[in-house]
Fold this sequence. Notes:
By secondary structure, this protein is α/β, with parallel strands linked by helices. It has a single domain (33-285), classed as TIM Barrel (Alpha-Beta Barrel), CATH 3.20.20.70. The protein contains nine helices and ten strands. The chain has helices spanning 45-48, 71-74, 84-96, 111-125, 139-145, 161-168, 173-188, 214-227, 256-268; strands spanning 32-40, 53-58, 80-82, 102-105, 129-133, 151-154, 192-193, 199-208, 233-238, 272-275. Strands 1, 2, 3, 4, 5, 6, 7, 8, 9 and 10 form a ten-stranded mixed beta sheet that branches. The longest helix has 16 residues, at 173-188. The protein is globular. Bound molecules: iron/sulfur cluster.
Amino acid sequence: MIYDNTRCTLCPRRCMANRVTGRGRCGAGNLIKIAAAMPHMWEEPCISGDKGSGVIFFSGCQLGCVFCQNRDISILNYGKEIDSERFAEICFELREKEVHNISLVSADQYLPYILPVLVSIKSTLGLPIVYNCSGYQSAETLSMLCGIADIYLPDIKFFSPELSRKYTCAEDYFEVASRAVSEMVRQTGKYRLDEKGIMKSGTLVRHLVIPECRKDSLEIVRWLSETFSPEDIILSVMSQYTPTGSVQAPARRLTSFEYESVCKAVREAGFRGYFQDISGADASYIPDFHLQGVTKG
Ligand code: SF4
């Protein structure tokens, strides 16, 4: 892999940042930066199981949705810089906690830094690597992950260019994400669960239903049903949208009508799906980031 950290073009933003002397649009500099590493029980049951998913939350994000519920780490770039040796240790420390997998959350901006570590520890680690991402991944990013990511956990956030421009300043979001998810499914093949229902490989697509955007959600379900068979992917429909106070984003929560109509479309398409309890859609879904598991000892 050839990566020029003085002119970064890793993600579709292609901001050409010099990450040796400064930071990119995503907030990333020239060291791995993470906000927390811990067993997480609140992912989908096939990911968290009964022991948790070993999540590593990376700082910064190239998409930067205006309603992001992890904005402290994604937009405000909270976290601690670590070297690759510490990153490897963190993966093994999570394994000692008997997690079902190691889940890399929003890691795109650090791939050239963490990939050599993942290649060298993957077989010793012996756990599936989950790549939890925004869906806004370049072909270059996905080619790096081929053979490393066992499970992809991408979002598909928007269908319409107007909405994605409004909420992320990325008019090409669906164009990029639809290609990316197709490539993820090509790499992983049909999803596979073990006898206890824990996911071992495959692609689980997440979609957060946003207030006032129900029709956009239905377009996404239509595209998924025309592109994939129910054996190809698992779908997770999320209701946890919480107003953040941003004037650009909807100021109310989702209604039952908005959420249930999207869930109904997913069921009718025949996908295996996870559906959140809309009454539980509050800030309790937002993890507390205080560098848990980042600092040694
Ligand atoms: S990963 Fe970050 S620095 Fe690199 S192109 Fe994307 S936004 Fe810019």
